[in-house]
Specification:
Number of helices: 2
Shape: elongated
Helix content: 10-25%
Strand order of the largest sheet: 1-2-3-4-7-8-6-5
CATH architecture: Beta Barrel
CATH superfamily: Sortase
Structural class: alpha+beta
Length: 210
């Protein structure tokens, strides 16, 4: 009788160990899968686009210094953005669809291009691969945009927390070249949020035909 109890207990322990091992394997597989998909979930869940339109003013008078000969096609990668302070180097795409924002930084089609002398509006998700470290930025930090027609350097002069409906906080104008970059806030938020963190930077020194 004692032997039977011992055998039964031993078998039960083995079954429990095997079941725990299987459960651990399943949980580990789920974690790996979720880890690979988390940035995509954030991209889909977070609606970060602020709808902007160019002011109905007279078109910018282009000079030889800021003339763009060939405008990029919608959805194309026409530049890279570097922010040394947070070790960021990302592709910039013309447009702001979910598909574009999953690949890198989007450029609002309602704003100007670097070198045109007006407002440039970029946006990106608050994922760890894009703008999760925005909180580390400081006034005076440099932002470098390298396009296929020139290199442009900007210096941060302001940072604001706004709501997605406050379109007046990201004004489109053609009197001064200003780069405005925003992402969802809080930075570690997963899912829909109504707040945006905006970084404002002024053009320092354009460098043509690099």
């Amino acid at each position: 009788m004692l032997n039977i109890i011992k055998k039964t207990a031993k078998a039960t322990i083995i079954y429990v160990i095997v079941a725990l091992f299987i459960l651990f394997f399943i949980l580990f597989s789920i974690q790996v899968s979720v880890g690979a998909q988390i940035d995509e979930w954030i991209s889909i869940a977070n609606k970060i686009t602020i709808n902007v339109e160019k002011k109905k003013t007279e078109p910018t008078i282009m000079t030889d210094e800021n003339q763009i000969k060939n405008y990029p096609e919608y959805g194309s990668n026409y530049a890279t953005i570097e922010i040394p302070k947070i070790n960021t180097n990302l592709p910039v795409y013309y447009g702001d669809t979910l598909e574009i924002l999953k690949k890198g930084v989007g450029h609002s089609s309602g704003s100007y291009f670097p070198g045109e002398g007006g407002s440039i509006i970029y946006m990106g998700h608050n994922s760890k691969k894009i703008f999760r470290r925005f909180s580390e930025l400081q006034l005076g930090n440099e932002i470098i945009v390298k396009t296929n027609y020139g290199e442009y350097r900007y210096k941060i002069y302001d940072m604001k927390l706004i709501y997605e409906t406050e379109v007046d906080k990201v004004p489109v104008q053609n009197e001064k070249e200003i780069l405005m970059i925003y992402t969802c806030y809080p930075f570690n938020n997963i899912g829909y949020t109504t707040q945006r963190y905006v970084v404002y930077a002024e053009l320092e020194k354009p460098k043509e035909d690099f």
